[in-house]
Specification:
The protein is mainly α. The chain is built from 16 helices and three strands.
Length: 416
């Protein structure tokens, strides 16, 4: 009898989370614990204690994720405009009363805690787009234009802070959710074509002419009024190339350095290229098995700036080597696979789009962060999820996982 009562009590205790994807949650927690270990290694000789704060915020984030997972995500559909309004108001508040650091105004100080609303805005955009695309798929141009217009407001507010990295994440989220929402792939290529055209016009002119021809063909095949659309695509990309010079002048000096120096950091080895040079040295020094935890010379002698935040992957590469880096990548791959499976098995479009929005956010952040530490992408200030130190980013990631867990937890249709 006692055993039966114990089982009944245990089932009652776990009932609100009985369909939760525990592997997804375990991966998030495991990566967080690993991040704290690596942060401690980077700060071992500096007397800092960010590693335990990393774990503390992770524990709070885990509690939030479990709290969100037990409530039905469908209720968010009736609140999505309020969430959208709060998101934009918080970003406006940053511009009016925010705290500035390193040439950007991104934080609101509450006591000793610096809150970064642009991080939480990612979740707000995901919820808003999921609600919009739930009722009307992105199979028509008006729906796509509406989704872009709604995303443009928080995107512009973040870009003006300026926070180029987070604004790029907004773009990745929007494109991923539009694709999952049945938008034509050609339309998405045309959306990003002006950015590519602006780069090619100023880097390699023959490639720019080829790009114009390719975009005109895509417009001809995917848009109505073929001749008008093809001509419009050519004109848009031609203008984008000319405007590249103008937009370049609007960027801050540190943003220009980040966009240029990854191609040849040796141009400014003691300035803007210093981060990349030292990061590549650290990763290459790790070789196959690494120099050992707390044993990396570049890491322990603090040669790599911002190593506990944006450049944490360089410490992983140096101290744990190629094998350790592969294990980290496998952990992220498995986590993203679980997100994709949940998106496919969701009971409605809203839940599926929520999962894809979170997947798009995490995939983009992981790829860009690791690419910039090895010199394959500009330094954009995007953290490595759950590993880089950043309290707002940590809470955002766990809130996003909580939403996906709610989708999985309530994927079964109600039975009467």
């Amino acid at each position: 009898m006692l055993r039966i009562l114990t089982r009944t009590r245990w089932k009652t205790l776990i009932a609100p989370w009985q369909e939760v994807d525990w592997l997804l949650l375990a991966l998030s927690v495991g990566i967080t614990l690993f991040g704290g270990i690596m942060i401690r290694s980077t700060e071992l000789n500096q007397g800092l204690t960010d590693w335990w704060q990393h774990w503390l915020v992770g524990a709070i984030g885990l509690a939030l994720a479990l709290f969100i997972a037990r409530y039905r995500y469908e209720n968010l559909m009736q609140w999505h405009w309020i969430i959208y309004g709060i998101t934009n108001m918080s970003l406006i508040a940053v511009m009016l009363t925010g705290t500035s650091a390193k040439g950007a105004q991104r934080w609101i100080t509450i006591g000793s805690f610096n809150l970064q609303p642009s991080e939480f805005a990612k979740v707000g955009v995901i919820i808003t787009l999921a609600a919009l695309l739930h009722s009307k798929t992105a199979a028509t141009i008006p729906v796509v234009v509406r989704a872009l217009a709604i995303t443009a407001v928080p995107w512009a507010l973040v870009f003006l802070q300026p926070d180029l990295g987070t604004s790029l994440v907004f773009g990745a989220i929007t494109l991923g959710m539009l694709y999952w929402g049945n938008a034509n792939l050609g339309w998405l290529v045309l959306l990003i074509s002006p950015v590519v055209a602006a780069i090619l016009f100023n880097v390699f002119l023959p490639a720019w002419f080829f790009w114009l021809a390719a975009m005109s063909i895509i417009a001809w095949l995917t848009l109505p009024w073929r001749w008008v659309s093809a001509a419009g695509a050519i004109a848009l990309n031609a203008v984008a190339g000319q405007l590249g010079h103008l937009f370049w002048g609007l960027l801050k000096d540190y943003q220009k350095d980040r966009l240029i120096l990854f191609l040849n950091p040796e141009q400014d080895p003691l300035g803007g290229g210093y981060h990349l040079i030292q990061s590549r040295i650290a990763i290459s020094a790790g070789e196959l098995w690494g120099q050992g935890l707390n044993q990396g010379t570049q890491t322990q002698l603090n040669f790599v700036p911002e190593q506990h935040t944006d450049f944490i992957f360089s410490a992983i590469g140096e101290e744990l080597g190629f094998v350790g880096a592969l294990v980290v990548l496998f952990g992220f791959w498995l986590l993203c696979l679980r997100l994709l499976i949940i998106a496919q098995n969701a009971k409605d479009n809203f839940g599926s789009l929520l999962a894809i929005g979170v997947l798009s956010m995490l995939v983009f952040e992981v790829i860009v962060n690791i690419s910039m530490t090895v010199g394959l992408a500009p330094v954009t200030g995007i953290p490595l999820p759950w590993i880089s130190y950043g309290r707002s980013a940590m809470l955002t990631n766990f809130i996003a996982i909580g939403l996906v867990e709610s989708v999985e937890n309530y994927r079964q249709r109600l039975k009467f």
